[in-house]
Amino acid sequence: MTFGDFAFDPDRQELSRGGAPIALTPKSLALLLYFLSHPQRVLAKDELITAIWGAVVVTDDSLVQCVKDLRGAMEDKEQKLIRTLPRRGYMFDSLPLPLPAPSTAAPLAAMPAAGSDPRGRSPRRWAWWWAGVVVLALMALLAGRMAWERSTAPPSNIDEEIKLRRALAVLAFTDQRGRATGSTLGDDLADAIGAQLVRGGSRVIGRAATVRQDAAAPEFERIGHEQGVRFVIGGRINRERGAIRVDTYLTEIATGAVYRLHEVQFQNDEAVGFAAFGREVALALQARFYELETAHTWRAGGRDDPVDAIALAWRELDQGNSEAALMRARYGFELAARADPRSVQAAAGVGATDLVEFYGLHSNAPGQTLEHAEQALKRALDLAPDDPQSLTAWAEMLLLRNQPDVAIWLWQKAIGLDPDFQIARLRLAHGLVRQGRYNEAAQQLAQVTDLRPYQMRRLQALSQARADLAFAQGHDDEAYEILSRWAAESPNNGKPQLMLAAIDALHQRSDAAAAHMARHRQLLPRSTVAYVLMTYPSSNPDFLAQRARLIDGARKAGLPEGAP
Model-level pTM? Predict the structure, then answer.
């Protein structure tokens, strides 16, 4: 294959230029091979390190040196071939082409007469040579046809595939005597779970379709075959001295693995809250799917599978604090968006990554980041105008574009569609604070109670909203306490350090202010007064006065003015 002025022979593992071989170290050769296999694609540093060093633990410096060595061998100081993309990774910016085949056609005047061969070949050998050319030409045409068919094939439906991978059936719960029927409580518990999952958009086969199964010894493989599902939810009711304990399990049909999802105890039948029970099981199921899908993807090495890529991308977005995690999330969502331009999950993920980058003070160009987010989130909204996730994300954009009333209305609409969609309540509270509607914001935050430990970014957003609410009402000590807990729980997140520094400066605690600001600047070097102001949009006079107080404290603590 060729690229630029270079040729690479895969069989001999040799790089050459103008026919002269170029010596490469084993690691430089491995890096070149990976670049050639993934041309014109953003490659995150972690992806390259894994591809080149495998399980061996190395630092980013090893990759930087390897790239430097390869560039040196190819005299690519101007990065025409290997581009460094700040905060994103590297890109091999050339499309390798097959080596040109030697010409088989001669000028008409030079063609030999019939039956003769100027090189002494017999007519039979000449015929065989031409037959080989024809066969090669036909093979090339066939390969081209197959490649064209692949390129024009309809893209996969990623969102539907995600639903299929999580499709499940719900069995009636058994009591101690193992009866699937005859226990109204067991039926109602199963129905509560099914209703909650359906409301959340899951593909669920309800209890009515599985009622003839013996829940004490269900035939899982037959359920999966008949109902087209991969998981089964069931449970057991234990009654002791009038009290009731309910255990809920998830069974993976393909492996037979059984996972405990949820355990709860009620004083009696009348004390059972079916809506709350269904919601708690649904949240536990979401966390379990999160673990199973991530484990499956890592085992299968499926980062390049668009559905697997989305699973890993949401994990990076939920759990990571670093720019590297953001870069990996962006890679997964963008890969999925290319594979399926109509995927709501992919478009929403791209936009969400941009918003996290913007609010996290990671962006080199915040305005451009918001423009990119707006395009992706508008796409998600157009594809799914009544999806709570799309509505919630688009409302965030409207708030940033100075349309708070419409944004708040959209958040309320999302909550109306799914009252258990916690992120919509969290972002609504965030918007209400910026409009000076503090009591309403507090009411919404009081209902955000079901976030899980793996949802790290959402938990941090909750801390941010609570701190903003306290500070906006002049409760500096309360805000400081919230921020201190946040900083202790997330020592590598520079956001709480900013407000801690500002509050310290406002209260003449100069040494503490300087220390917090130094840590903030170390973790978030792109943070400036101008950038921070962009993250606090408002037209409400009361909030604007408190925002001015925050900025005054940040300036006194040493935050540079800068420009977004």
Answer: 0.67
